[in-house]
């Protein structure tokens, strides 16, 4: 196994795709920590195809009243492997913001794994993540490169939120199923940028390829969850009276990522050992995972009114109908605002729209007050626990906060983390202080209620 000498790397962090819509918000978040007191982030570089666009992004990120700091701008194009190799050779961590990841992500992962550089991204595309795991895990372990996708709103609030939720079920109680209800709120329009929309269009278009990849891979173990599995299917729309929401089942990356975290946990019940963990860290990690209780998990999009779900239902129908043909995809990609009924725009949301948006993700868990009840055949869950994760706008505020905090953990405490490999954020960051760091940066995790269920 290669022991990487990270101290010789010129940059702690390189942000690749810094000129993108999300990239520039990531740069803004990174500047808050660059050379700040007690921050391990001492050197930062931006990378992308165009130095002038990188320089504009840096100027924007520094704000209208500040001189942009002197930060190296590196030229890198995902179609030029040598340029990526040069960047990866100089970086401890690359934060990849170049999407759709199915089009541009693989060469970046390859360069990082080759150079033993750590890689974090903001991908929300399950097929990309699973392909990278299938292709690069072994080499990443060998070369000491940690590759962790989905370090943004997809899927850290869901992952860390579920771990937080499951730990509220004190022994002998245990959850059976947890439904996350995502509610997006704003007094302005809620808008996403084209990059996310394009990733979704291509994801639906290539759904068959993901199914094929999964068929070609060995089945992973499933966690032991007390009680029967919830029935498959179920209503697409549900009225969640307790939360005052209408909810639509979402084919989100979150549930797939959570499932992969739980599979890795089943294979490694004490979590993943760090490269060079202290005795206390080993104990902390093992204690942490001993309090986590796996559950069946799903995500729904909630809205205060049934009408509020209408644009998402329409977008889902358009994606299903049009994304499979070339002409259909062309139409979808030419007219995002039309097909998403205004939810996605080519030029993204305004700064005001971003600033005024927030999210709440409610975790409603049903389970047993005593795990032994679960073995009583048809016994229904008798307890409900509700927790909540809440934070600012998802794509351009929460995502950069999450990504930066993940990077800072890597810089601060690399010895406590696995030597390398392709993993989900939950299994790597679960036992770290990520939840606290997110709390300190405006993303809260709250226990809401616990009650008995009567039928
Ligand atoms: N996890 C989450 O919750 C979350 C949140 C937000 C975004 N995202 C994802 O992030 C990705 C980017 O979204 P976005 O809206 O920021 O897109 P965007 O504005 O189009 O930005 C794309 C970036 O990629 C760069 N790029 C494109 N092709 C490249 C290449 N061949 N080599 C190097 N750089 C290249 C672009 O650079 P140029 O300036 O040179 O064009 C730009 O910096 C999408 O996949 C989206 O789904 C995820």
Automatic annotation (TrEMBL):
One of its GO terms (cellular component) is plasma membrane. Residues 223-233 have a biased composition (Pro residues). InterPro entries: NAD(P)-bd_dom_sf, Saccharopine_DH-like_oxidrdct, Sacchrp_dh_NADP-bd. GO terms for biological process: glycolipid biosynthetic process. It comes from the Eukaryota. Coiled coil: none annotated. Pfam families: Sacchrp_dh_NADP. Residues 13-148 form the Saccharopine dehydrogenase NADP binding domain. Residues 215-235 are annotated as: Disordered. Belongs to the saccharopine dehydrogenase family. This is Saccharopine dehydrogenase. It comes from Perilla frutescens var. hirtella (Perilla citriodora).
